[in-house]
Design a protein that fits this description.
single chain, alpha/beta, TIM Barrel, 8 strands, binds phosphoenolpyruvate
Length: 249
């Protein structure tokens, strides 16, 4: 089973519109011949409409949305609105949303359902904080995140999801997981998908690594049998580093 290789850039709350347009144009131009890796970018939602006009073969997603159709939810955007503006994917369960905005596993589950209902590809983020890693209970912790918010999906729905393992202690810290730590968790995640669904489905799901992945370490991470690409934060904000990560397979 050949799984999709994917590199996704999470721009977070960075860049102004002109920088964002330039970055999309540059990445699209540099990546024009890269057809075997799916490239996904997650810009600030406000820039979606402009980016949709120039995105070329890049896929564009949102970092956040609210899982209701419409109505009195001041300041929020719905999944149908972001779809209407060209987004094909949504990041769900990112640790910054879980920690800073107190998103619960229940809310994350509602977001998963809303995205699936609107045929938006889910990039489901999971990962343990440092205290859990230090107590060596990271497997239980991550498995529970998956059970609580993702594994209720049907066989056909789960296949529309990408899973991103992002140990929180590695995000934005410059402290990457070792290849052993990454492969061990990715392998476990695939095994849980097989237990909950079946081996064929488990083999078909792309599992990305995120957490200080950069141009120097992407190569060895992407060489792990169960690592199918990366979710990149800081290093996705410059064309050169992002492209060099994309070329690390
Ligand atoms: C992220 O926020 O998803 C991430 C992986 O960030 P960074 O690459 O900066 O650690």
């Amino acid at each position: 089973m050949i799984r999709k290789k994917i590199v996704a850039g999470n721009w977070k709350m960075n860049l102004q519109l002109n920088d964002a347009i330039q970055l999309v144009e540059d990445i699209a131009a540099e990546a024009k011949d890269i057809l075997d890796v799916e490239l996904l970018i997650f810009p600030p939602t406000l820039f979606l409409v402009e980016i949709d006009k120039i995105k070329s073969h890049l896929k564009v997603g949102v970092q956040n949305f609210y899982p209701k159709e419409s109505g009195a939810f001041t300041g929020e955007v719905s999944i149908s609105q972001i779809k209407n503006c060209g987004a094909t994917h949504a990041l769900i369960g990112h640790s910054e949303r879980r920690e800073i905005f107190q998103e619960s596993n229940e809310l994350i589950k509602l977001k998963v359902d809303s995205a699936i209902e609107h045929e938006i590809g889910v990039v489901f983020c999971c990962g343990e904080p440092l205290s859990i890693r230090e107590g060596n209970t990271q497997s239980l912790y991550v498995k529970q995140q998956l059970i609580d918010s993702l594994f209720h999906l049907s066989n056909s729905e789960i296949q529309k999801c990408i899973i991103a393992y992002e140990p929180i202690w590695a995000i934005g810290t410059g402290k990457t997981a070792t290849i052993e730590q990454a492969e061990e968790m990715h392998c476990a995640i695939r095994m849980w998908v097989a237990e909950c669904y079946n081996q064929e489905i488990a083999n078909s799901i792309s599992i990305l690594y995120g957490g200080s992945c950069n141009a120097s370490n992407a190569n060895e991470l992407f060489a792990c049998p169960n690592v199918d690409g990366g979710l990149i934060g800081g290093a996705s904000l410059k064309t050169e580093t992002f492209i060099s990560i994309v070329k690390s397979f």
